[in-house]
Design goal:
The chain is mainly alpha-helical. It is built from 9 helices and 3 strands, in the order H-E-H-H-H-H-H-E-H-E-H-H. The longest helix has 21 residues, at about 25-45.
Length: about 170
């Protein structure tokens, strides 16, 4: 979302964490399949989610796709997130829309500060996609968040906030 907001002139700076649209067709399909599987898991576990999330092993199984350190996820927050994913009314439309989204106009970001972060333990949008990001956005600052998963704000909130602040200043 951040690169697109920057491209449209709606942002004065952009910090993107493993942004969608910088992928090839295989990576896009992997992303779609992964989030669909996570949703199916959340739906099928239903009432058992709190019990599963109460153990470190259960949190690894439930949240390992999204977090670099899933055992550290707060059980109640993880259950709430899983239930929200299971119930999201726009999920299918959003997932399907990925097929039509590829970030293209890097020139539109030439006049604003841009940072692109890839998380070293991201299983949804793997860090190898950073190579394509460097080609598409050569003027951006590219960083790797070590030990973080697809949702790095839980794994290392200070590093994420620091990147946003550094890019905005």
């Amino acid at each position: 979302m951040a690169p697109e907001l920057g491209r449209r002139g709606a942002a004065l700076s952009v910090t993107a964490f493993a942004p969608v649209g910088l992928w090839g067709p295989v990576s896009r399909r992997w992303c779609q399949a992964s989030v669909a599987a996570a949703r199916a898991c959340a739906r099928s576990c239903g009432p058992a989610l709190p019990r599963l999330a109460s153990t470190a092993a259960g949190r690894v199984a439930l949240f390992g796709l999204f977090f670099g350190h899933p055992a550290r996820v707060d059980p109640a927050a993880g259950v709430a997130d899983a239930r929200a994913l299971a119930a999201a009314p726009g999920f299918a439309a959003a997932r399907d829309a990925f097929a039509g989204h590829r970030f293209g106009d890097a020139g539109a970001l030439a006049d604003i500060p841009v940072t692109v972060a890839w998380e070293s333990r991201d299983l949804i949008l793997p860090a190898f996609q950073a190579r394509r990001a460097r080609r598409l956005l050569p003027g951006a600052r590219h960083v790797r968040l070590r030990g973080c998963g697809h949702l790095p704000f839980n794994d290392d909130p200070h590093a994420c906030a620091g990147l946003v602040a550094a890019t905005a200043s």
